[in-house]
Amino acid sequence: MTCLDYIELLEGEQRDIMLALHEFITSFPQVTCKIRFKIPFYYRKTWICYLNPLKGGGVELCFVRANELSNEQGLLDFKDRAQVAGVSFFKVGDIDETVLLEVFQEAFVLDDEVKYASKRKK
Fold first, then answer.
1. How far is CA 104 from CA 55, 67, 70, 98, 100, in A?
2. Which residue segment(s) compose the domain that 84 sits in?
3. How does pLDDT run along the chain (122 residues), one tens digit per residue?
4. Rounded to two decimals, what is the model's pTM?
5. Of 5, 57, 91, 114, which sees the most CB atoms within 10 A?
6. Within-domain flag for 79
């Protein structure tokens, strides 16, 4: 199943949000999407982010290495998670691409320049 196949299976506003975010994320050079853990994950060298459909009909855009990002925009919510943080959208109009662009640019620099090391305890 491709990421677009997955998104097309969703309904209503959730599908519209996922599609808008998918198109935004994949517009960046070298970004690819794969279904992992039954949801869309976006990669360059390593995992950058994923889209998680929420039970209330929204979508959470989560950054895998958020603990290493500055979060100067105050956009990312860790929700009691140590490494991953995200932002939830409930309408397509909630998506501010200008602010997201800043977060993605920082995430891409991190992906290019800092080797990923899992923070999980072994």
1. 25, 14, 11, 10, 6
2. 3-113
3. 899 999 999 999 999 999 999 999 999 999 999 999 999 999 999 999 999 999 988 999 999 999 999 998 899 999 999 899 999 999 999 999 999 999 999 999 999 987 766 555 44
4. 0.91
5. 57
6. yes
Domain count, the chain: 1
Cβ proximity of 56 and 17 under 8 Å: no
Decide if 81 is inside a domain: yes
Burial class (CB in 10 A: 0-12, 13-18, 19+), 84: buried
Domain containing residue 13: CATH number: 3.90.1150.200
Beta bridge partners of 77: 86
